[in-house]
Structures are given as C-alpha cells and as structure tokens.
Amino acid sequence: MSFSVYRAADADAKRVDAEWGCLRWLANREIGNAEGFTLGRVTIKAGASNPAHSHGNCAEALYLLSGRLEHFIGDERVVLEPGDTLVVAAGVPHYANSIGEEDADMVVAYSSADRDFQKE
Fold this sequence. Notes:
This protein is mainly beta and 120 residues long. The chain has a single domain (8-113), classed as Jelly Rolls, CATH 2.60.120.10. The chain is 5% helix and 45% strand. It has one helix and eleven strands; from the N terminus they run αβββββββββββ. The strands form three sheets. It has a six-stranded antiparallel sheet, with no helix packed on it. It has a three-stranded antiparallel sheet with strand order 7-6-9, with no helix packed on it. It has a two-stranded antiparallel sheet with strand order 4-11. A hairpin with a 2-residue loop joins strand 6 and strand 7 (76-80). The chain is globular, with a radius of gyration of 14 Å.
C-alpha cells in the first residue's frame, strides 16, 4: 500500500500517561505504518517536567504547538515558544520544563522507526 491513515481514536487508545503529561504515538514500526521514522504528539503539563533522557539510535525533532518550554540539551538551555522547532542529535541527554500557563503541546519526530529511550 502506498499510504496509511492512523485515526485519532487509535492514538487515544494507545495513549501513554505519565505524572508529567502524556504521549500519543502516531507512526512507527510497532504501529505498522512507518519503516523509517517515529512520529508522536507529546503534552507536558504546565509546571511539570519530563524525565532527563536520550535516544541513542536516533535524532529527535520537536515542534511546539502551544505552551512554553524550557528545554535543557546537554549543558545548554533554550526557551521555546509556539512555532519553534528544536532538533536534538542522537545520544544527547535532554529534558523539558513546561513553563507557560498552559500545557505544552508538541509534535515529535525521530529518525528511526524503532526509537529507543534511556533515562539519564
């Protein structure tokens, strides 16, 4: 097949909730609709932080839809506003604090269909 549609209801059914927010995986090898990348939507609750982590097998691109993020990448710090894009190289530790008054909502993409995750 030359295309695939993954419905919003399917993503909500496979939603991964955490203290800090949630992940909805939209495309990857496990879902069966992508062979070369992973795509997801991440929400970090206002005032919360996701855990420090890295992805040894892939780069990550993050596009902030709403909210504000204070992102730490290695020894660097950057504040992201809606519409900003951040790209983190494979293996580099990073995490984010949601510093706005609303939840930070973002789209994330990884350069592997089998994204790995290592807590730092």
